[in-house]
Amino acid sequence: MKQNLLMIIMIVMIMPGIALAQGTNVNYTDGATKLTGYFVKAKTSGAAKAPGVVVLHQWMGLTAHEKTSATKLAALGYHALAADVYGTGMTPKDMKEAGEKAGYYKTNFEVYQSRIKAAIAELIKQGADPARIAVIGYCFGGTGAIEAARAGMPVKGVVSFHGGLGKAETRPNIPITTKVLVLHGADDPYESEAEIKKFQQEMREGKADWQMVYFANAVHAFTQVEAGNDNSKGAAYNEKAARRSWEYMNLFLAEVFAK
């Protein structure tokens, strides 16, 4: 089983064009905002509804990275929606604009939470079991996954890949009922030790069922091949961390979706 999983992952990473052809663009809305996500149907022959996973994008918007993740999740038996947070046609043109957009949603967290709720609703509309939904995210999307837990959304679990963990000091720590998995680069320069400790305290005070896994020699964006391989830049791909973090997520989803 483990060898088959690794083979699926390697095929998808090497030939993303083939993998991406399995999904379809879906249009949905959050209030007056038009959104365009990427849905991939679970590869399962079972009669029961498949669990669903929302994939939240990093600060550059919905890219092949998130679509590939959705395809890999579908191969594991989950309906998957690579969600759109920014809006149809609102992809940032550069990192400056991406920073501004991501900063807006981090500050206006209620709007971010609303975007995630809209994605969950669309995933269920596409056939996912409403009683078995999870949210995962990368970088900025990892922040969103944590926000889904903070909002008490009806999801079984959330997974943050190299995501931002902090929140405004004015926001109180509240009970966290959703299971939480944080996959973090041990050398990530964008998350201070103080912020990490505050997050961990938030989880403790919220009586959360949480895990935080560190990956050696990994910085920010360690799952993203397009980040390059230069750790000195603070964001870089790490094949070992990417592979291991995916396996941790796979085990986590199997557990939270178990009936």
UniProtKB/TrEMBL annotation:
GO terms for molecular function: hydrolase activity. Residues 42-256 form the Dienelactone hydrolase domain. It comes from the Bacteria. Residues 1-21 form the signal peptide. Keywords: Hydrolase, Signal. PANTHER family: DIENELACTONE HYDROLASE DOMAIN-CONTAINING PROTEIN, DIENELACTONE HYDROLASE DOMAIN-CONTAINING PROTEIN-RELATED. This is Dienelactone hydrolase family protein. It comes from Mucilaginibacter glaciei.
